[in-house]
UniProtKB/TrEMBL annotation:
Keywords: Heme, Iron, Membrane, Metal-binding, Monooxygenase, Oxidoreductase, Transmembrane, Transmembrane helix. This is Cytochrome P450 monooxygenase ATR2. GO terms for molecular function: monooxygenase activity. Its cofactor is heme. Belongs to the cytochrome P450 family.
Amino acid sequence: MEIEQLSHVLSDRLPALVSVALFTIVVYAVSSLWNEKSTLPLLGAGYGNAAQRRKEYMTNAAKLYQKGYEIFRHQAYRMTTLNGERIVVPLEALEELRGMPDNVVNNIIGLSKEIETKYTSLDGENSAFAAHMVRSDLTRSLNRINPELAAEVERTVREELGPCDDWTSQMPFNQILRVVAIVSGRVFLGPDLCRREEYIYASTMYTVDVFRAVSKIKAWNQYLKPIVQFFIPELKTLSEHRRKARAFLAPVIQERKEAMRNGSDLPDDMLQWMMNKAESYGVSDARLAELQLDLSMAAIHTTTMAVADLLCDIVIRPDTVDELRAEIKQVLKNHDGVLTTQALYEMKLLDSVMRESQRWNPISQSRFPRYIAKPVTLKDGTQIPAGMFIETAIGPVNHDPKLYPEPGVFDPHRFHDLRNATKPDPINYKTREQYQYVTVTKENMGFGYGKHACPGRFFAANEIKLIMIHILLRYDMRMPNGATERYPRLIQGSHEAPDPTVQIEFKQVQSAAQA
């Protein structure tokens, strides 16, 4: 039966597949004749052809970037990645490259290649509207919305992690994912919609399905992708997510439009801020709904991974837990128990631990993906042909002893001491405040670099701090079976993530139980 169904599918799609195949062959032939290739040195040539180099990258990307950093520290080189050939540029080139206009060094095309927008239909152009909204409305509203955010975090952490009257083993990634989805949704959609299970499911699973689809499409050669796309069910799942998002939010948007016409009080959330500007930016109601999924993809899983990594880092360091609690309690005392934005800023040890965890646990070994739209010649004479993609290695930078003394030591106080000037500054920043968690520099690209750095990092930092504060004040934690080693992370190519299946034991502290 399955073979018969497959034959029907193939016969139905055969004309289209033949057309795509012929077009692919023509594109390949033309690109082979006309594409200008870089003559920069190729890392890993000894592994064999492009397919063999790609296989090596899949399993040993971190080692390859480290080798490239050691051999070509101050010069550009080529590397075969899961996205094809890339030019890896040195740190000193970033200042020059970031100042170039988008019609020369393009961020959207570079990102589109990373997330395969041609097949996933993720819209980089319209997502620019969401990025504008984050910068212009969300970040500027943090002081105002922070008390509501803090209350939502306290409630949701308590509900999702539970009472834990005795030591309770949990897979915290799952609970934290729901906490982040609900708390982020409180800002994105308001207090009622953020707790609807259909929203929570969509906001958490959309990202999972995006990266499942991306992973499957990247498994194929670029010239076969136009054909293979028809046989990847996850791509259809993404379309279904978008359809459901439009159906879920359509009545909400219409109700709010009616309130806008009537001059009624309006909600104070991201959806409403977007609606206020949608017409002037040419954004349709359907796209407004889909942008909520894009916001979820940008915010929820990355924040969840940051919190999960933090928990894995501090659960094996009880002294750090004690120090963090002491700082939190003192700052709360100084601010009459209110978690204002200023109070969060004053928690400098917590900020330091967050940045040290980010240094140790990058989500990718490379950053700054860009497409070279026009030929570029750098000041040192390096020539980058048009049509090439570039990136820079960040994993080796995070462990460079010239930038971070004793890089193999997880030092909770590293950035706290640097900000307080109790340790010499190895990088010689203009101000010690550049060692904050949210600050982007070429030596700290956890949130990207340049004008296209993550606009939501200030919101993310506040959210991470609030979640960590309420976990630390409410729960003791320990590793199961007395383990003392940190859990390993999951690695695929250049990408890394905390293992969502690991377990940590929680027990409610006595003072929290009495509150």
